[in-house]
Design brief:
The structure holds 3 protein chains of 3 kinds.
Chain A (H helix, E strand, L loop, with lengths): L1 E12 L2 E12 L3 E6 L5 H8 L7 E6 L2 E3 L4 H7 L1 E4 L11 H5 L14 H15 L14 H14 L4 E5 L7 H16 L3 E5 L3 H7 L2 E6 L2 E7 L7 H9 L12 H5 L3 E8 L8 E6 L3 E5 L6 H8 L9 E4 L2 E3 L4 H7 L1 E4 L3 H5 L6 H11 L9 H15 L15 H10 L8 E5 L7 H16 L3 E5 L3 H7 L2 E6 L2 E6 L6 H9 L2 H4 L3 H8 L1
Parallel strand pairs in A: 3-8, 3-9, 6-7, 7-8, 13-18, 13-19, 16-17, 17-18
Antiparallel strand pairs in A: 1-2, 1-4, 4-5, 9-10, 11-12, 11-14, 14-15, 19-20
Helix pairs in contact in A: 4-5, 13-14, 15-16
Chain B lengths: L5 H8 L2 H17 L6 H26 L7 H15 L4 H28 L4 H19 L9 H8 L1 E2 L3 E2 H17 L2 H11 L1 H6 L4 H27 L8 H13 L11 H20 L4 H29 L1
Antiparallel strand pairs in B: 1-2
Helix pairs in contact in B: 2-13, 3-8, 3-11, 3-12, 3-13, 4-5, 4-6, 4-11, 4-12, 5-6, 5-11, 7-11, 8-11, 9-11, 12-13, 12-14, 13-14
Chain C lengths: L1 H9 L2 H34 L6 H26 L9 H16 L6 H25 L4 H20 L9 H8 L1 E2 L2 E2 H19 L1 H11 L1 H7 L3 H27 L11 H10 L11 H20 L4 H19 L6
Antiparallel strand pairs in C: 1-2
Classes of the chains: A alpha/beta, B mainly alpha, C mainly alpha.
Chain lengths: ~525, ~325, ~325
């Protein structure tokens, strides 16, 4: 008997389809794994089930009844609770205040019963983190502790269906085990769980069946009770066969690395005590791999001058760089294509012209008075070169597709002839065709001598265009993969620092880079 | 688990710097103001600080819920003008005046709560527009300062109960009692939740717009009290009487360690902040400066206090 | 052109609809002018002579004063970051008082007076801007506090009683006419042209739109956004101070709160003119329309014998309505 059945859920945001066709069946007392690459629609889907997002179309049956879930409150009434990645905790409140927020126990007169709240919080939190005081403010907790508070709070409400959105991302191995123990306990009590994760071994360990999303659609389901836990089958479902990027030939390594373009030394990321150190050859494309949130984005932001780079020694084209402001980086020719193009890369409400000429204004490459005609011609040239559609400088960028928007973000730097291009997950939310064009442009730039540092959450992308890939883990470079090593398994292994990665020390990896 | 005690508690709540500033201004004030520690001076100081203390508490409630009330000064004004225009010596007219003034203040609060909570207008500008409406209404009711305020207001406010308890202190205690009651209700936690992270509060099933409306209405109780105290002090209706409260309450709130982002700080901080501003006004007055300098210096001190109060948060952000 | 249109139609529904919303920007200006015409027709009906040429010129003359000070407000709002300047009124008062005392009725000091007024305005505005950019004080609070400081400065400078008066040349600018058109209106037209050129054809003008739309993108493009923000508030201060000098040119003598009644109308004029309070969108011709509409409205209210109180209520209600129509915050 199914607890939840959702069929053909659909959602579009202003012309961009986040979910085309989402389907899922979740059995009572079972753990259902939800898999898919970033932007595959799985988070939109889970938000629909939990009432955060209202579907445009489709049906949801829950507990035998056809339901419409229009708000998180309503979902809660049905017994559906979702644990978001970092959404529902109030930093300034204590653990116990957070854990009872929205369903505070009260006395008969309507007065808060804080003693009971504390007790409730203590009972559930101790399952995960026995040593953690419920009186601590959430803002003072570590990421893992916050995650536990969040999950404990959900469990305390005794849901019928618990949705966990990448709950293990901030957790260590032993903590993951604790979480799994609680999930098994819940299962035994008849609670169903939807478990979202990128880590295959976790899925294999805890899930009873899995559903896979790709490009906004449900592409398959595997029931571990009847089918075997075939990792390859799952991986091929997640990645699909539609990414037709031509593999970069591995031989570029030798020729390209003759001339050194960028040297980075003693750059400390996050809390990591061991600073990173690497170099980039002229025209070389170097990937930054690893699990999400291991410092890749910080590395790029530090190089872009936005985040303080501390005592790092950064040398570009033989000249020592002092990065106090993005201006210093941009002037030196090191430019960033940021991860969140809407927030960091574009002026959404303005036309392509302003977006494409802005960096020139910013670093005063133009005169005080602007020649609109010259700038427009230049913008048109960029549009032509990157094949941005529609080829109209007056088009307001918020009406472009994601791929074309990303081309604008890359294109705006072209007139400055950048020496180093920093790319932070540029293909996120970009369709396959535009992705190919985007990476073709990157390769083209590399051939013309621009060095590229690319962070992508998708291994396929890294393998397709990088001359080598540095693997980051907790703010350190722990491994380096050469084209001859490229394979999904090597990436996963290196990212998780599992056996195969551990026998190659970072020092060795560094030595190979030379 | 570590139990926090006395001083540690204060440090935790972030009130330590405010307490330090408080002690300094009191000391300077004591040095400049003759007979500072006498009961009479204590009482008159307290009486003159009370309106700002009450109004700052009102501002604090709104700011904690993630809003800001730019209409506070004009709402107080409207309350006093309504009273001055309707009251006579008869108990009936006094009751009517007070009732109408409370009704006006609650209407203003409800309008603010509705526009900010339900229409989702930016609080900072919409309350400012409401402020203009209040000012206009006050001017319509009373184009020139005047009206009649029975002497019983003034006399009661300046008196002491049983020779030791100034009425102004009782008023402050009453306001704190109101807040004490709120602290025992769900709305108290929801105000912090909505101010701290609106989308998270929403995700927890809290109706954020109701909470915002409630915050403005709770503030109304305190504004109505302020209005009563102001009219007892001045004994006249004047459409410009409350103008300075808007800025001063914001300053008191910020000095009191409440984040203008919302959700952080305590109403007691705002009380301390209001006292600090009161003492600073006193100091400027007793320092024998030309009265022309008073506005200037007060404005500068407020700007200084604003920037200094915001510094620690900035520094923390830089490390995050 | 036709191709663009075809593409717009080809785009799916929501996109096209949004594009429609954007065009309201220019439609707002049109609506504003239509309302002005309606007001004059209504005024003529209620009080014959209201729509006479001389009265229209009078209204434009006063609009010019509001429009010049509203320019200061507009730049700050355009610069984004919840930008707003509540000190424009106080700053205008200070400008008027400074100029009045320095000129003391003689033309000799005109240039030095202009220089001092500009410098004082810029310096004080820049202090506000620095507080906002570097110390993250919310603009509204910072400029409100600064307004009280500016009032204090004016009080101290004048010892409570402003002396002096406008010089003949300045007065000629304020009340004189050329070919029947008030000199102030001619000046205003010139300013509007300069501002339009500045915003669309110069590097800082275009950069300002970026700053107002998205600070992070602007910063990452290499603009020192904090310096830029400080400069914008400085410019706002300088312009409102000069605006105050224009007030003096119109009234002849200054008084301490000569500019304070302009504060709220500048905000409304800017919003009527289609400048988004979120920043980054709009142009000065909208603000010009807003200033004319507001002055016409105020003028007809005065003709209808509505007092200051009634007008304040009307202003408040209009601002609330404008906010409700296009100032709503997005749901996060």
């Amino acid at each position: 008997m199914h607890l939840l059945r959702a069929t053909s859920l659909r959602k579009t945001y202003g012309g961009i389809t986040a979910l085309k066709d989402g389907n899922l069946e979740c059995k009572r007392g079972k753990v259902c794994g939800l898999l898919g690459a970033n932007g595959s629609g799985k988070s939109t889907f889970s938000k629909m089930i939990s009432g955060v997002v209202t579907p445009d179309d489709g049906d949801i049956w829950f507990d035998g009844a056809h339901v419409r879930i229009s708000s998180p409150q309503e979902a809660k009434k049905h017994g559906i609770i979702m644990v978001h990645q970092h959404l529902s905790l109030i930093p300034e409140l204590t653990c116990w205040e957070n854990m009872t927020l929205g369903f505070e126990p009260v006395s008969g007169m309507g007065f808060l019963n804080n003693a009971q709240s504390r007790e409730l919080a203590r009972t559930y939190l101790s399952k995960f983190a026995p040593g953690l005081s419920v009186d601590r403010k959430v803002k003072d907790l570590s990421l893992a502790q916050k995650q536990f508070v969040e999950i404990a709070k959900a469990v305390a409400q005794k849901p019928k269906l618990l949705i966990l959105d990448e709950p293990t991302a901030p957790l260590e191995q032993s903590e993951v085990e604790k979480l799994f123990a609680v999930i098994r306990e819940l299962k035994a009590e008849g609670t169903s769980v939807i478990f979202i994760s990128h880590r295959l071994w976790e899925i294999k360990t805890i899930c009873d069946h899995v559903v896979v999303f790709r490009n906004g659609e449900t592409v398959g389901a595997i029931d571990f009770a009847t089918e075997e836990k075939d990792e390859d089958a799952i991986v091929s479902m997640i990645s699909g066969k539609d990414l037709q990027l031509v593999k970069h030939k591995a031989q570029t390594g030798g020729a390209a690395r003759k001339e050194r373009q960028l040297e980075v030394e003693a750059l400390a990321l996050r809390q990591s005590r061991t600073p990173v150190r690497f170099e980039l050859g002229k025209g070389e494309v170097v990937g930054l791999g690893g699990l999400q949130g291991q410092g890749q984005e910080q590395l790029l932001l530090a190089l872009s001058g936005l985040h303080p780079s501390g005592s790092a020694r950064i040398t570009l084209g033989g000249k020592r760089l002092k990065l106090r402001h993005p201006r210093d980086a941009v002037r030196a020719g090191m430019v960033l294509v940021p991860g969140d193009r809407h927030k960091e890369g574009l002026f959404l409400q303005h036309d392509m012209l302003l977006n494409l000429i802005y960096p020139q204004l910013a670093v005063r490459k133009t005169g005080f008075f602007l020649s609109r005609r010259r700038l427009k011609a230049e913008a048109e040239q960029i549009i032509g070169r990157l094949n941005i559609v529609p080829a109209d400088t007056g088009k307001v960028v918020q009406f472009l597709s994601g791929g074309n928007q990303q081309k604008v973000v890359v294109g705006k730097w072209l007139p400055l002839a950048p020496k180093v291009l920093l790319l932070s997950d540029p293909a996120k939310g970009v369709d396959v065709g535009a992705k190919k064009e985007l990476y073709d442009t990157v390769k083209q730039l590399a051939e013309q001598g621009t060095s590229v540092l690319l962070y992508a959450s998708d291994y396929e992308e890294l393998m397709a265009i990088c001359d080598r890939v540095l693997i980051l883990f907790e703010g350190q470079i722990v491994d380096q993969l050469m084209p001859s090593d490229y394979s999904e398994e090597r990436f996963v292994a290196a990212s998780l620092r599992s056996e195969t990665a551990a026998d190659r020390s970072p020092i060795e990896a560094w030595g190979e880079a030379k | 688990m570590i139990r926090t005690h006395g001083l540690e508690n204060i440090r935790q709540s972030g009130l330590l710097p405010i307490c330090a500033i408080f002690i300094v201004v009191v000391a300077v004030n004591a040095w400049l103001q003759p007979g500072f520690f006498s009961f009479d001076v204590f009482q008159s100081n307290l009486a003159s600080f009370t309106p700002l203390v009450l109004a700052s508490m009102a501002q604090a409630v709104v700011v904690l819920a993630g809003g800001i009330d730019m209409s506070i000064g004009m709402s107080i004004t409207l309350g006093t003008v309504v009273m001055a225009a309707t009251m006579g010596d008869s108990p009936g007219s006094i009751a009517l005046g007070i009732a109408l003034s409370i009704a006006a203040i609650v209407a203003v609060g409800a309008l603010n709560g509705w526009t900010v909570g339900y229409l989702r207008l930016p609080a900072i500008i919409s309350t400012f527009a409401v402020s203009a409406i209040c000012y206009g209404a006050s001017l319509l009711i009373m184009p020139q300062p005047g009206g009649y305020v029975p002497s019983v207001f003034y006399e009661t406010y300046q008196s002491t109960i049983l020779y030791v308890l100034p009425v102004s202190l009782v008023v402050i205690a009453a306001a704190l009692l109101v807040w004490g009651y709120v602290q025992k209700r769900k709305i108290y936690r929801y105000i912090y939740a909505v101010g701290g992270d609106e989308s998270a509060a929403y995700a927890n099933g809290i109706s954020t717009r109701k909470v915002k409306l409630a915050a403005f209405l709770i503030a109304c109780v305190l504004i109505a009290l302020t209005s009563l105290v102001v009219i007892s002090q001045t004994s006249t209706g004047d459409a410009n009487i409350g103008r300075s409260y808007t800025l001063n309450t914001i300053a008191a709130v910020v000095i009191g360690g409440i984040s203008l982002q919302g959700g952080k700080g305590s109403v007691f901080g705002a009380v301390l902040g209001a006292f600090i501003i009161g003492f600073i006004s006193n100091i400027i007055f007793f320092a024998n400066l030309s009265s022309f300098y008073q506005d200037l210096i007060k404005g500068l001190i407020i700007i200084l206090a604003l920037t200094l109060s915001l510094l620690p948060a900035l520094r923390k952000k830089a490390f995050a | 052109m036709s191709m663009t249109n075809a593409q717009t139609r080809d785009m799916n529904g929501p996109g096209a609809a949004l594009r429609g919303i954007r065009q309201i920007g220019s439609r707002k200006v049109l609506v504003a002018y239509l309302l002005v015409i309606l007001i004059f027709i209504a005024g003529q009906v209620v009080s014959p002579g209201f729509a006479a040429f001389s009265n229209i010129m009078n209204v434009l003359n006063i609009s010019a004063l509001l429009g010049l000070i509203a320019l200061a407000q507009m730049l700050v709002v355009l610069s984004g970051g919840e930008g707003i300047d509540l000190s424009v009124g106080a700053m205008a008062s200070l400008g008027a008082v400074l100029a009045s005392q320095m000129l003391n009725g003689a033309d000799g000091n005109l240039l030095p007076a202009i220089a001092v007024v500009l410098l004082a305005g810029f310096a004080i505005g820049a202090v506000s801007g620095a507080g906002i950019a570097y110390f993250k004080v919310p603009p509204l609070v910072m400029t409100l506090a600064m307004a009280s400081v500016i009032q204090g400065v004016a009080l101290v400078y004048t010892n409570g009683q402003p002396k002096g008066m406008a010089s003949p040349l300045l007065k000629e600018l304020g009340v004189g006419r050329t070919a029947g058109i008030p000199n102030l209106v001619l000046l205003w037209i010139a300013v509007a042209i300069v501002v339009a050129v500045f915003l669309t054809r110069t590097r800082p003008g275009q950069a300002l739109y970026g700053l107002g739309t998205n600070r992070l993108t602007t910063e990452l493009s290499g603009v020192r956004t904090k310096v830029f923000t400080t400069a914008v508030y400085g410019a706002s201060g300088a312009i409102s101070a000069i605006g105050g000098m224009m007030l003096l040119s119109y009234t002849g003598t200054a008084f301490l709160d000569i500019g304070s009644s302009y504060m709220l109308p500048t905000i409304i004029a800017v919003v009527i003119g289609g400048i988004s309070l979120a920043g980054g969108l709009g142009s000065y011709n909208g603000t010009v329309a807003g200033a004319i509409l507001l002055t016409s409205l105020s003028s007809i209210l005065v003709t209808l014998r509505m007092g200051e109180g009634g007008r304040q209520i009307v202003y408040g209600v209009i601002l609330l309505l404008l906010l409700a129509v296009y100032g709503r915050q997005k749901v996060k």
